[in-house]
């Protein structure tokens, strides 16, 4: 019996020592990896942060107007792309929405309508930033998706916030709408584009 206890004692001392040496080599390797320059992988939050902070990729998107009621057809955020102001006016007429005073013509250019989706109460809003980025044929738009606080007094009416945005006149085949946490919330892709 004493021999059995001494083997157990020896194992009890040996196993932690082996574990420590293994941990030491793992730690050394982890430290080496941590010292490598960080590369942002496409589609990650770090990638999007780099996109919006790079001056060479910066472009400007101009929010033309917002509406709390865009008569959205679903709860999910959406992004629609328009080749000209006439197409936007046709969309407005179909949805019963007006971003500009009646009779006003939109300037020539490319447009997008960003929709938050249908919500059960008031207090929701969507605001698209001027800060945008263009990289490899993809236009990145940044937006704030605003929600009412838990204790906020809100109207008990169905809403569907949206925003009309004048896009930069540059060639691109895809538009992505990101929220304030850099999560992709909606997008538009040109027919035939393989991104």
Strand order of the largest sheet: 1-5-6-8-9
* Helix/strand structural class: alpha+beta
Element-by-element helix/strand order = HHEEEHEEEEEE
Residue fraction in strands: 25-35%
Mean pLDDT: 80
- In the predicted model, the low-confidence regions spanning at least 5 consecutive residues are 1-41
Give the C-alpha Rg: 26 Å
End-to-end distance, in Å?
Answer: 70 Å
Number of strands: 9
Task: Work out the helicity level.
Answer: 25-40%
> Outline, from the CA principal axes?
globular
What does this structure look like?
The protein is of the alpha+beta class. 28% of the residues lie in helices and 29% in strands. The strands form 2 sheets. It has a 5-stranded mixed beta sheet, covered by helices on one side. A hairpin with a 2-residue loop joins β5 and β6. The chain is globular.
List its salient traits.
195 residues, alpha+beta, 5-stranded mixed beta sheet, 4-stranded antiparallel beta sheet, 3 helices, 9 strands, 29% strand, globular, disordered N terminus
Secondary structure elements and pairings:
Blueprint: H1 2-35, H2 45-53, E1 58-60, E2 62-67, E3 78-82, H3 85-95, E4 110-115, E5 125-135, E6 138-146, E7 162-167, E8 174-178, E9 184-189
Parallel strand pairs: 6-8
Antiparallel strand pairs: 1-5, 2-7, 3-4, 4-7, 5-6, 8-9
Report a brief summary of the structure.
The chain has helices at 2-35, 45-53, 85-95, and strands at residues 58-60, 62-67, 78-82, 110-115, 125-135, 138-146, 162-167, 174-178, 184-189. The chain is α+β, with helices and mostly antiparallel strands.
């Amino acid at each position: 019996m004493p021999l059995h206890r001494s083997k157990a004692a020896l194992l009890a001392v040996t196993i932690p020592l082996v574990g420590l040496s293994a941990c030491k080599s793992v730690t050394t390797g982890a430290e080496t990896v941590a010292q490598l320059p960080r590369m942002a992988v496409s589609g990650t939050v770090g990638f999007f942060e780099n996109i919006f902070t790079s001056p060479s990729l910066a472009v400007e998107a101009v929010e033309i107007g917002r509406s709390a009621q865009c008569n959205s057809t679903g709860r999910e955020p959406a992004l629609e792309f328009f080749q000209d102001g006439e197409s936007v006016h046709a969309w407005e007429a179909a949805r019963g929405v007006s971003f500009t005073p009646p009779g006003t013509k939109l300037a020539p250019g490319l447009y997008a309508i960003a929709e938050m989706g249908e919500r059960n109460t008031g207090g929701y809003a969507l605001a698209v930033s001027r800060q945008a980025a263009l990289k490899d044929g993809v236009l990145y738009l940044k937006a704030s998706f605003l929600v009412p606080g838990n204790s906020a007094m809100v109207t008990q009416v169905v809403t569907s916030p949206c925003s009309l945005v004048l896009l930069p006149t540059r060639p691109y085949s895809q538009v992505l709408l990101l929220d304030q946490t850099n999560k992709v919330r909606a997008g538009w892709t040109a027919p035939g584009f393989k991104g």
